[in-house]
Design brief:
Chain lengths: 601, 146
């Protein structure tokens, strides 16, 4: 009995809560000990000849104390259960909170070459009226004294951060309905260099690399039966619906080098993250589902030559002034966009078709050579009658006036006199662009996955400008992937083909008139992945892009951080609007190796 | 200033068929018209959002059914998490009378089929609806030079 009382007196209720099971066990032992003591003392008292009335009284007291102890024990057990429930609730909330964080960290070491170190550019020799076509390369008259591409354009080792990002996502049930409010914020992060703006002598981007929002960021509503509706900045269904057909996402030679890439450069026009866009994702019905998107143009300029309201850069992630041009959006600024996809999936089969339109895309900076009709016809300070820049090459010594004069003679309307920029004449290079694609994927039970995708991209232009329509072509993608070691390792091969575009991709220092339309390209990729565990993967990758004479596709477009492209290191200490930034060399053959680590969480 | 005799009040307007009142009426009418034109958009948007919430609220379930669905979802998530190859941290399972609905992120194309197969293998699961998404975040666009 004393033992029991002693325990109770030493431990308060709060302490007992803290001690938990241990205290309960102690009390139980005390209770049993008390009962045993009582049982033992009974016979002793009886043997001493105590009166039965005393024994009854003592038994009542004892029973009362047992009842008290039982009551205390019950209270402690209830408190402990409540405490455990609270702890479980807190744990669940904490786990839910932690689960909301997601991301990918990916850094690689690349060893790549632009594959153009031996190239030489030549002036044109034109025999047509007014010095226009037909033209050919004047092999006796090399440009710049026969100089090769400027700078380190051969093999180079680099470190690259590839598609690295961190984000947070979650949901919140609306009342007692089956609808959740959903949200996600995401940031693209650079694991290999300090974040900041991408302002150089050739462009002026205001997008902060590494800031929250440079990643799919949205709010929305989600229902199991009706799908989800998202509002914000995010990739559109045209991109997301076929991402799974591309096993090389974020790597050298991923399919965005060709697919969705209308200009054969570092930007993926039909795979870009859209500002101020609404996306609807339907639920899956018997394997069928569809998605749709609408992007608000928000551009007060009729030719979309300025940044949209609320955006830091031009539409489609076009940077103002890219290529040492005017600080405007004439390299792809557009107004509204819309698109969608239709998908079917059952077992290992996945079929998809998708479409997207960008309205009134301003491509005034496209053109043959380094000068399109607008830029080549910029009023200069020269003595010529038109006062154009090419009448006085000394005004901008890097202008490619041979090329400009050749096509100005062939297309006088496009290069007509008196054209200045801005403002822009709508008769020139502003028109809708759309893309459509269809493809599928099948995964065999033994670990082989095959994928194929066909794509058609169009640009609606007046005939007078079709000669420089480099945005219109088809493309194909095929990939095979095989899982080794039960899925722990993978190996994949990929092939992409860019069909011929109507106009030759612009900006080429070494444009070859003998190769008009010879702007196709083929890309080959091979990669191996080894999983250390579910989250950490090592990979090795090789890719090469074989460009035809007037094409300049790279091996880094898409989410790979460092783009190994067909631009040399030419730079000017001044902005002269001559497109004389990094000079583009058509027909280059970029290739490279890459090995890196990828961690997801 | 807008005296009926001078600028076309009701009487003058009636006589000449025009005037500031008529203009005012036209202005008001145009405002109303603009508002009316906007109503469908706002109305449709509101209707869609309200409809989304209302229509998605099905008949209430019993406590027992809710508990059973919860246990089922937890079993599926546990099975997904126990797989050696699948990174399932961001897969969420919801259960509804044996039908399991998968949402969230996976990182590899093969994960779609793997996740569905694993969920289907959980006892009591009659069907799996796959609404998973492939995580391809980061920044896809690089600098452009011409």
């Amino acid at each position: 009995m004393r033992l029991t009382v002693s325990v109770n007196s030493r431990l308060g209720k709060g302490e007992l809560l803290m001690c938990g099971t241990r205290v309960v066990r102690s009390l139980a032992v005390s209770l049993v000990a008390g009962v045993l003591c009582s049982s033992y003392s009974g016979p002793t008292l009886a043997q001493a000849g105590a009166a039965p009335a005393d024994q009854d009284a003592k038994m009542r007291v004892l029973q009362q104390r047992i009842d008290d102890l039982s009551k205390q024990l019950k209270e402690i057990q209830d408190a402990e259960a409540k405490n455990a429930k609270t702890v479980a609730t807190v744990d669940k909330a904490w786990n839910t909170f932690i689960k909301g964080f997601f991301g990918t960290l990916d850094v690689s070491i690349d060893y790549t070459t632009k594959g153009m170190e031996d190239m030489v550019a030549y002036h044109l020799a034109c025999t047509g009226p007014n010095g226009g076509p037909p033209c050919t390369l004047d092999l006796n008259n090399p440009k710049n004294g026969g100089a090769h591409p400027y700078g380190r354009v051969s093999w180079m080792a680099m470190m690259s951060s590839n598609g690295s990002n961190v984000g947070y996502r979650g949901s919140h049930q609306i009342g007692k309905s089956n609808v959740d409010f959903i949200y996600q914020v995401s940031a693209s992060i650079d694991m290999a260099a300090a974040p900041g703006l991408q302002n150089t002598w050739t462009k002026s981007s205001n997008t902060v690399q590494g800031a929250i929002g440079l990643g799919d960021t949205f709010i929305g509503l989600r229902s199991k039966s009706l799908g989800q509706l998202k509002f914000g900045e995010m990739y559109t269904p045209y991109k997301t619906s076929t991402d799974r057909l591309n096993p090389f996402g974020g790597m050298l030679g991923n399919y965005n080098v060709v697919m969705g890439n209308t200009g054969g450069d570092n930007r993926v026009e039909f795979g870009t993250r859209m500002d101020h866009v609404i996306v609807y994702d339907s639920p899956s019905w018997a394997g069928f589902s569809f998605d749709a998107s609408y992007g608000f143009g928000q551009n007060p300029d009729p030719y979309n030559n300025i940044t949209p309201l609320g955006s830091a850069d031009c539409s489609g992630s076009n940077n103002p002034g890219s290529g040492n041009l005017f600080l405007n959006c004439d390299d792809g600024g557009f107004n509204y966009s819309y698109g969608g996809d239709l998908k079917f999936e059952t077992g290992g089969l996945y079929l998809v078709a998708a479409y997207e339109l960008h309205s009134a895309v301003n491509r005034s900076s496209d053109g043959i050579g380094s000068n399109n009709p607008i830029y080549g016809a910029l009023p200069g300070a020269g003595p010529g009658p038109s006062n154009f820049a090419c009448d006085n090459p000394n005004n901008s010594p890097l202008l490619d006036c041979d090329t400009y004069n050749a096509f100005a003679a062939e297309y006088p309307q496009a290069a007509c006199c008196g054209v200045t920029s801005p403002p822009y004449n709508p008769a020139y290079d502003t028109g809708d662009e759309w893309a459509a694609k269809a493809g599928g994927q099948y995964r065999f039970q033994f670990g082989l996955t095959v994928s194929y995708l066909w794509e058609e991209m169009k640009r609606k232009l007046q005939d007078v400008m079709m000669f420089q329509n480099e945005r219109q072509r088809n493309g194909q993608w095929a990939a095979v992937e095989y899982e080794l070691s039960g899925g722990g390792d993978r190996i994949a091969l990929g092939w992409a083909h860019a069909g011929a575009s109507t106009g030759d991709p612009g900006g080429q220092h070494n444009y070859d008139p003998n190769g008009v339309g010879h702007n196709t390209s083929n890309m080959y990729t091979a990669a191996y992945w080894h999983k250390f565990d579910k989250q950490l993967t090592w990979y090795f990758d090789y890719a090469v892009t074989v460009n035809n004479v007037n094409a300049h596709y790279d091996i880094g477009a898409g989410a790979h951080g460092i783009k190994t492209d067909c631009h040399d290191a030419t730079h000017t200490p001044f902005v002269d609007y001559s497109s004389a930034g990094p000079t583009t060399w058509g027909g280059c053959r970029p290739q490279g190796f890459s090995t890196g680590l990828n961690f997801k969480f | 200033m807008a005296g009926p005799g001078r600028l076309g009040g009701p009487a003058g307007c009636a006589a000449r068929g025009c005037g500031i009142h008529r203009i005012a009426r036209n202005v008001e009418a145009s405002k109303v018209l603009r508002v009316i034109k906007r109503v469908p958009y706002a109305g449709i948007t509101a209707a869609v959002l309200c409809g989304l919430v209302a229509c998605a609220s099905g008949p209430p379930k019993s406590d027992a059914q809710l508990q059973a669905d919860k246990v089922m979802a937890e079993r599926v998530e546990a099975a997904l998490g126990a797989d050696k190859e699948l990174f399932a941290k961001h897969i969420t399972a919801h259960a509804d009378n044996g039908v399991v609905h998968l949402t969230g992120y996976v990182w590899e194309a093969s994960d779609f089929q793997e996740a569905v197969s694993i969920a289907e293998s959980v006892p009591g699961v009659t069907r799996v609806v796959n609404d998973l998404e492939l995580n391809r975040n980061g920044n896809d666009n690089g600098p452009v030079a011409r």
